[in-house]
Specification:
Blueprint lengths: L1 H22 L11 H18 L3 H6 L1 E11 L2 E7 H14 L4 E3 L3 E5 L2 E12 L3 E14 L2 E9 L1
Parallel strand pairs: 1-7
Antiparallel strand pairs: 1-2, 3-5, 4-5, 5-6, 6-7
């Protein structure tokens, strides 16, 4: 009886896990509702690819000149850096979390030349360890181009 209960529990757990994984969508599956959302999704995908490649200058190029971005956390305190300070602050974060980024389904609130994006970023290290951070990106549109004004995470 006990073996049967363990077997049924295991099968049910696997089934629920598969349903949960199938129900989650990610940024790749997101259907933009406007040209601005399409440009914002493109920026987020570019940010992900640039981050994973370790291209610090590419990340800096996506930042507004007045950007304020969060870095650090874990064993070091979270801090806010200007674009200029990010040149020294970001390499450690990029090196620590460069691989296996997955961006969840964004919640985009775009109005005029400003946008707020809430998105879950999952960092996978190997097959067994994941870090999940809810990120908030604040964007501005200048010269027909979306730029990152800030990002924060919990």
């Amino acid at each position: 009886m006990q073996r049967r209960l363990i077997f049924i529990t295991t099968i049910l757990s696997i089934f629920l896990l598969l349903i949960g994984c199938a129900a989650q969508t990610n940024l790749k599956d997101y259907e933009p509702k406007s040209p601005d959302e399409e440009a914002i999704v493109s920026l987020l995908n570019k940010w992900k690819e640039t981050w994973e490649s370790g291209n610090l200058q590419g990340i800096l190029d996506m930042l507004h000149d007045d950007a304020k971005i969060m870095y650090g956390g874990g064993p070091t305190p979270k801090r806010i850096a200007t674009k200029e300070e990010a040149k020294k602050a970001l390499p450690g974060d990029i090196a620590a979390f460069c691989c296996g980024l997955k961006l969840g389904t964004p919640k985009i609130d775009a109005s005029g030349k400003e946008a707020n994006v809430e998105i879950l970023i999952v960092v996978t290290e190997g097959w067994h360890m994941q870090y999940k951070w809810p990120y908030t990106f604040n964007l501005v549109k200048e010269n027909n181009r979306w730029l990152i004004m800030s990002w924060k995470y919990q």
